Amino acid sequence: MIELLSEHMCHGGRQQLYSHTSAATGLPMRFSAYLPPAAAHGPVPALIYLAGLTCNEETFVIKAGAQRFAARHGLMLIAPDTSPRGAGIEQASTDSDFGLAASFYVDAVTAPWSRHFRMESYIALELPELIESALPVARGRIGIMGHSMGGHGALMLALRHPGRFRSVSALAPIAAPTQCPWGRKAFAGYFGGDVAAWADHDASQLMAAASTPYPQGILVDQGMDDPFLASQLHPSSFEDACRQARQPLELRRHPGYDHGYFFIMSFIGDHIAHHAAQL
Fold first, then answer.
1. Selected catalytic residue, list 73, 147, 259, 275
2. Is the distance from CB of 58 to CB of 90 less than 8 angstroms?
3. Catalytic annotation on 226?
């Protein structure tokens, strides 16, 4: 059961905010939903957007300017929160790159995180079923994309759940989390010290072991003035893995662009068109 918290007209459609109690996390969760004008006449494909560190369910819909493109292509936009909230974990809010708003979209296995930080189950299993049953979403026609930590989540979940998402793209993703400080910190906290097990949640390593999982192609955009490019993101590792897996990849490198929402709003129209073509 979902509760409508707010609703606003936007580009002829409706921008909504919902809350519900999640079976996966055991806590209330929020997500935003943009229903394009076409949704008034029947089910439409949906695109789940996973936001980055420190963000929530409203950051993307307020900052990215995506609704006008979604209205044009008849896509519903779903933006879930970036972590459970209210878990009662003291250290959850002490760091910006771990815990609150920093779930890395995984199911934690170590205490105290394992009780509520089950975002993989929430995003890949519970949320698609929820929106297909409660909103005018065309069944089986869901794509996924994300930015930074959310880009990691989108690529990783698409590869770990074949058939769940029909299209995938990312903006400045943490493409090889086992190779960067953000990813190593998060994985050590959520999975413990078994480094070999981390590979199951690293998009580059998952892709290297795959075989053309998305034959219609994956789109990734990266700003070349991104301050996190060299230390945290490693898009070349994902590019190499796609080459090994014979996965069609369009990795676009953009001089002058950084990591923030000005970068996202510059290319979000291309991403929505990418998903619309495949959905």
1. 259
2. no
3. yes
225-244: pLDDT as tens digits: 999 999 999 999 999 999 99
CA distances from residue 17 to 33, 77, 105, 209, 229 in whole angstroms, order as listed: 6, 11, 20, 38, 33
Q: Which of 83, 103, 148, 237 is catalytic?
A: 148
- How many residues appear in the chain? 279
Which of 140, 149, 114, 111 lies closest to 228, judged by CA?
149
Could you tell me the CA-to-CA distances from 54 to 58, 149, 226 in Å, in that order?
12, 10, 17
What type of residue sits at position 35? L
Question: Residue 190 — φ and ψ, nearest 5°?
Answer: -90, -30
**Is residue 152 annotated as part of the catalytic site, yes or no?**
no
Span 82-137, pLDDT tens digits: 999 999 998 888 999 999 999 999 999 999 999 999 999 999 999 999 999 999 99
Listing DSSP states for 191-220 in one string gives: H-S-HHHHGGG-HHHHHHT-S-S-TT-EEE
* pTM greater than the 0.90 cutoff: yes
In sign, the C-alpha dihedral spanning 25, 28, 30, 36 is positive
Q: DSSP letters along 48-112, please? A: EEE--TT--TTHHHHHS--HHHHHHHT-EEEEE-SS------GGGGSBTTBBTTB-TT-B--STT
The reply to whether 271 belongs to the active site is no
The pLDDT score that the predictor gives to residue 143 is: 98
Q: How far apart are CA 181 and CA 86, in angstroms?
A: 26
Catalytic residue, from 226, 234, 237, 271: name it: 226
User: 197 or 110, which is more confident?
Assistant: 110
Q: For residue 59, which of 40, 86, 77, 32 has the smallest C-alpha distance?
A: 32
CATH class of 3-277: alpha beta
Cα(229)–Cα(271) distance, integer angstroms: 20
